[in-house]
C-alpha cells in the first residue's frame, strides 16, 4: 500500500511538472526552464513505472535500462549534431517514433489477447484498436513528412488520381474492420488484426501524400496531436494516469496549435488536408509581362539601413538554409549602435515547423521583445523605413490580397509593401515553397539583393562598419 501511494505521488508530481513546464514553454525567456522541468517530471514517471510491478519477479530491468541507455545516447548525439535547417525533420522523426511506441504497446496487447494470455472486453478492445490506428498514422505519416522536408520525396510524385477519395475509402475500411474486430472478439483471429495494423500504417502514408509541402508546419502540428492521442490511449490500456495526462496535454496543445495555424492561413483544416498546397504550378498576378525586378548594391543597401530610423527584418526558411541568423543579429547590433530601431516580423507559418523562426532567432540571442507577431508587425510596417526580407517568400506575397486566382488568396500575410522601402535577399527569382511567383519582387518600393543570405549579410556587416 505504501509503495502504491508513493508511485501515485510520483505520477502526480510528474504530471504537475509537465503542466508547469508546458506553461513555461510559452515564452523563450522561460522555455529552457520549462524543458528541464518537464524532463524531471518524465524522469519521475519513468522511475515510478519501473517500481510499480516490484512484486513481479520476472521484470526485465536489464533490457529496460539498456534500451533507455541506447535511446538516450541516440537522442543526445542527434540533438547535438542536428543543424537548425534540419530541426523540422528531427521533430517529425521524433514525433513518428512516439507513434511507433504506441503501436508496439498496442500490438503486445493484441498478441496476448489472440494468444489467450489476456482477456479484453469490448471497451478495452476499442482502446487498443484506436491506439493502433492513431499511432500508426502518426508513425508513417511523420516518416513521409520527414521525407518531404528532407527533399527525399517531391510533392505530388506519389499522389494518385482522386487520392482523397482513396483515403476516405481506406478510412472507411479501417472503421468497418475495427467494428468487426470488436464485435467478433477473439473469433476474428490474429490475421485480421494484423491486416488492420498494416492498413493503418499504409493509411498514415496515404494520409500525408496529397498534402503540399507549404502546409508542412500544419501537418507536423497535427501529427504531433495524433501522437499525443495515441499516448493517451496507451495510458488507458495500462491504466497509467501519467501517460493519460501527458498524452492529453500533447494532443490538446497540438490540436490547438493546428487550429491557430489554419486560422493564420485563413484556411480550414479540411482544405489543408486535401488542397495539395505547395505542389508548384500556381501562378500569381504580376509574374507575367515585361516587369523587371530592380537590384540594389551592397553599398547602397548598407547606407539605406544605416541612416534609417527603423528597420524590420522578415525571416523565412531561407534564413535557416543559409544559417544566417547570427550574422543577421550582427547587422542588428550595428544598426542599434547607430540609433536604429530594429524589429523582427514573425509570420505564424514561416519556416517548416511551428515556431521555426523563433527558435532560429533565439539561437542568435535576439531579445524576445524584438519579435513581433503578424498583427503587431502589420501595425508597425507603415511607419517603418526599411524592411529586409531574408529568405521569406509566400508570407510576404501581395497576391494574398489582390489575386483571387492565387492559391494563397485570403491568407493573412505581412504587408511589407506598406513600409517606405523593401529589400529582398534571395539567391534568384525562383518561387517559394508554395510554388507561386511573388509580385512584390516587381514592386516600385522593392529592391532585390541577390546571393546567399549569409554572404550578403556578411558583406552588409563590413559595409556598415566602414560607414
From TrEMBL:
GO terms for MF: NADP binding; proton-translocating NAD(P)+ transhydrogenase activity
Limits of the NADP transhydrogenase beta-like domain: 8-462
Tagged with keyword Transmembrane: yes
UniProt KW keywords: Cell inner membrane, Cell membrane, Membrane, NAD, NADP, Translocase, Transmembrane, Transmembrane helix
EC number: 7.1.1.1
Catalysed conversion reaction: NAD(+) + NADPH + H(+)(in) = NADH + NADP(+) + H(+)(out)
Enzyme class per UniProt: translocase
Described function: The transhydrogenation between NADH and NADP is coupled to respiration and ATP hydrolysis and functions as a proton pump across the membrane.
Name of protein: NAD(P) transhydrogenase subunit beta
Natural source organism: Flavilitoribacter nigricans (strain ATCC 23147 / DSM 23189 / NBRC 102662 / NCIMB 1420 / SS-2) (Lewinella nigricans)
